[in-house]
UniProtKB/TrEMBL annotation:
This is Acyl-CoA dehydrogenase family protein. It comes from the Bacteria. Residues 235-383 form the Acyl-CoA dehydrogenase/oxidase C-terminal domain. Keywords: FAD, Flavoprotein, Oxidoreductase. InterPro entries: Acyl-CoA_DH_CS, Acyl-CoA_Oxase/DH_mid-dom, Acyl-CoA_Oxase/DH_mid-dom_sf, AcylCo_DH-like_C, AcylCo_DH/oxidase_C, AcylCoA_DH/ox_N, AcylCoA_DH/ox_N_sf, AcylCoA_DH/oxidase_NM_dom_sf. The lineage of its organism: Bacteria, Bacillati, Actinomycetota, Actinomycetes, Kitasatosporales.
Length: 385
């Protein structure tokens, strides 16, 4: 089936990324897995490779290419190799859109060159203990000082991907109380320097999957945040968060599709090599039928995420379309990866096999960025229901 989303430039980039993964990631990936995170210096290598600056304007050291297609290639190549780039995915997928949308020229001059080089890794701190998907219910506060030079940040966040290595974190905090008619009012966004006094990283969370991605609890005790690090306008943060959810959900959808595609590749290799009852597992009709059904589902998911990618690049991806793509692709990936693991038999349950890690990594796709249930609510509302 011929795809039309990628051109020769994307193919050249794919070859570069594939060679980089083989040389820099595959040989040490087991060490990262055991350590529970990628080493900090790996992100400098990604910066040198240029992957952080693809969508950053040239004046700040980037390539100035306004497209998510290079990110899509990286999703496919990391999944294909059964690896990840640690917690760096949020740096571009979650960090960059807010800088692009909200930062002043002065802020961009301060933030973006270090963003591109990997000198400053970014994360997004939205979720709090006890609030989950209810962002408007957050309790973290940021109060303006009497002299008006800084905000005083107090509170806690959890499930923050990239939180251990982050140098700057976009923290969502209440600068005003919610209104009776609008509980979403009063949230603001801050680009917080993690070296600030009173800022601390708590536990590095022990997750079911995504073992090489550092995910942490964060705490803020009277952290002074300069007014120059307020992103956008006060009290309008909830609206800003909503605008970037479509691109985040596309990223999760595309990543899930890439995982499902990789799962078929791993299963095909395994069933052709593994012999049972004197013949390859691939020779059994059940194996052929299961993999054929998986392939059909992945073909459909590819069409969905490619369409969403084109819409995203055109600036036309709606919240409902993003929710639909995420719901469909993540549910497909869940079914496909489970079937591909089953075809591995007992070996599919061993972490030394990529399919086992893929199975664990994939599970969170139906939770973060909005659960499948929340996606259904968004789609239903768009349907007028």
């Amino acid at each position: 089936m011929r795809r039309t989303v990628f051109n020769e430039d994307h193919q050249a980039f794919r070859e570069t990324i594939r060679a980089f993964i083989e040389a820099e990631v595959v040989p040490v990936y087991d060490e990262w897995f055991a350590a529970g995170q990628a080493p900090r210096d790996f992100y400098y290598k990604l910066g040198e490779l240029g992957v952080f600056g693809i969508r950053v304007p040239e004046e700040y050291g980037g390539a100035g290419i306004e497209s998510h297609k290079y990110e899509a290639v990286m999703y496919e190549e990391t999944a294909r190799a059964g690896v990840s780039f640690g917690g760096s995915g949020v740096h571009v997928l979650l960090g960059l859109p807010y800088i692009e949308m909200l930062a002043t020229d002065e802020q961009k001059k301060r933030y973006l060159p270090k963003f591109v080089s990997g000198e400053e890794m970014w994360a997004l701190a939205m979720t709090e203990p006890g609030t989950g998907s209810d962002v408007a219910g957050m309790k973290t506060t940021a109060k303006l000082s009497e002299d008006g030079t800084h905000y005083v940040l107090n509170g806690a966040k959890t499930f923050i991907t990239g939180g251990v290595h982050a140098d700057r974190v976009i923290v969502c905090a209440r600068t005003s109380a919610p209104r009776e008619d609008d509980r979403r009012f009063g949230i603001s966004l801050f680009a917080v320097d993690t070296k600030s006094e009173g800022y601390s990283v708590g536990r590095k969370l022990d997750k079911l999957g995504l073992k090489t991605s550092d995910t942490a609890e964060l705490a803020f005790v009277d952290v002074k945040v300069p007014v120059d690090d307020l992103l956008g306008e006060e009290n309008k943060g909830f609206g800003y968060l909503g605008k970037n959810l479509a691109s985040e959900r596309w990223g999760i959808a595309f990543g899930a599709y890439a995982q499902a595609k990789a799962a078929i590749r791993f299963a095909q290799q395994y069933v052709q090599e593994r012999t049972v009852f004197g013949k390859p597992v691939a020779a059994f009709q059940n194996t052929k039928f299961e993999l054929a059904a998986c392939q059909a589902e992945v073909d459909a998911a590819e069409a969905v995420v490619d369409r969403a990618l084109e819409a995203l690049d055109a600036g036309e991806l709606t919240p409902a379309e993003a929710a639909s793509a995420k719901l469909f692709a993540t549910e497909v990936a869940h079914r496909v990866i489970d079937k591909c693991l089953q075809l591995h038999g007992g070996y599919g349950f061993m972490n030394e096999y990529p399919i086992a890690r893929l199975y664990a990594d994939n599970r969170v796709n139906r939770i973060y960025g909005g659960t499948s249930e929340v996606m259904k609510m968004i789609i239903a509302k768009d349907m007028g229901l």
